[in-house]
Specification:
Layout: E1 13-19, E2 24-30, E3 47-49, E4 61-69, E5 84-89, E6 105-110, E7 118-127, H1 150-157, H2 165-169, E8 174-176, E9 186-188, H3 198-256
Parallel strand pairs: 1-7
Antiparallel strand pairs: 1-2, 3-4, 4-7, 5-6, 8-9
Length: 257
Amino acid sequence: RTVCASPFHAAAMKYNISYPATAGQKTIAIEGDAAFKPFVDKRISQEVAGDSLGEDFKGYIFRIAGGNDKQGFPMKQGVLTNNRVRLLLDKNKTCYRPRRKGERKRKSVRGCIVDNQISVISLVVVKRGEKDIPGVTDVSRPRRLGPKRASKIKNLFALEKGDNVIDYAKSFKRKIEPKEDGKKHKFKYPKVQRLVTPARLQKKRHMLACKKARVTKQKDLKDAYHTMLAQRAKAQKEEKAARKERLSSTRKSGNED
């Protein structure tokens, strides 16, 4: 007598849970079919109630962000199947990073529908529950690096046009410990990108002036070329008329003789 195993059985199902509010993330391994059944036939971006996952996740709501199958192939959004497929991917597609410019490659990816071949599911906490998840919701990891782009720094501190962005960027400075003993520590802060300075405005005006000069030069060259063509056509027309007149005069003199 043969005993059929459950089609949803997985040796060790793993939840990769992340909480964007605290930047906490943790991977939890759960044994048994109960860890997998709530996700059967669910797609990426769908939400799952934490009550169906166990008492530890009561009141939570999770969003499926992705996953990997038992061989490590990632799930890809938009591929409406629960099987593994081979797709021709380029730099604008997920699950592939080209090494050369214009490179495309056929890669194996898993569809966005969860089935019994998935071993790791990435979950994002949408709503917190009654209990804290250790290492996820009970920790707070502050942002290590601040924004670098000038417009984002302005939006973060609600700055006006005359405020100095660099002074506010220095509030994100980090203390760098020396690698050798006896040396002083250093401070490092973000280098502001896309900063509008008088030098940048002057360069922009110079580039615009150069562009206008190129347009004017091309227009003058075009007018000079058309003028030359008109003069050449006029000269050819006059030469043709003179040749015709000479031929006609030669014929007349021959007939008189």
